[in-house]
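Handout, section B. The chain below has 249 residues.
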Amino acid sequence: MITLSCAIIDDEPLALDLLESYIKKTPMLHLIGRYSNGLQAMYDLESTPVDLIFLDIQMPEISGIELARRFGENVKIIFTTAFSQYAIEGYKVNALDYLLKPITYSDFLQSVGKAVTWYEMKTDANRFRLTLEEEIQNPIDENCIFVRSERRLVKIDLSKVLYIEGMKNYARIFLENQENPIVTISTLKSLVEFLPSDRFLRVQRSYIVQISKIRIIKNNFIVFGNFEVPIGEAYRDEFEKYLKNKRPE
């Protein structure tokens, strides 16, 4: 089971005691500190960061909303307050949840469940990314790579690849005689590092083509059936060198 480090920031002693009692009987939480002073909490938690903060909104010196903005996005915030009108403000600073005082243990557990789910998804995503990088870096042979697509590993025969399109955090791999591309959670940058440079050429920031598959070039576009891959200006000189080497004397 995942365990989250946490802190409580509230200027009301009774609220601090209640939340501490809830945390102590919740196995997935580990209390790092409790603070009645927001500024002191901010200084301490800079050097000892936590996963989760239970944060009151109305406090002297600095409000919970302002304090939440000082913590990085890796720290999740659950606001605790007696005033429901602050809910919208809380969500504007990307709060994970909002607990209205007096806080019951049932509501507390529900909020903690959201935090646990968020961190489990984050951990799975990081593990997935590392696994994917390892899979790409260790292909079975030089003629194929394995990519993750739709929660499974798919073997890509490099000899069948026409072109690859980068789409920010994922890529689409277009193959010969296959209408739909293979969509993989991998950036174009990570893919290009493991493709043979003598076979694949980047022709635009978002496109890589297999050199041997180029048949038609029209107005700075490489034509693959009904689709045209643009040749970017920054890549045009390198592409011209390729064409020059391929033209008959």
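Note. The radius of gyration is 27 Å. Compare this with the example in section A.
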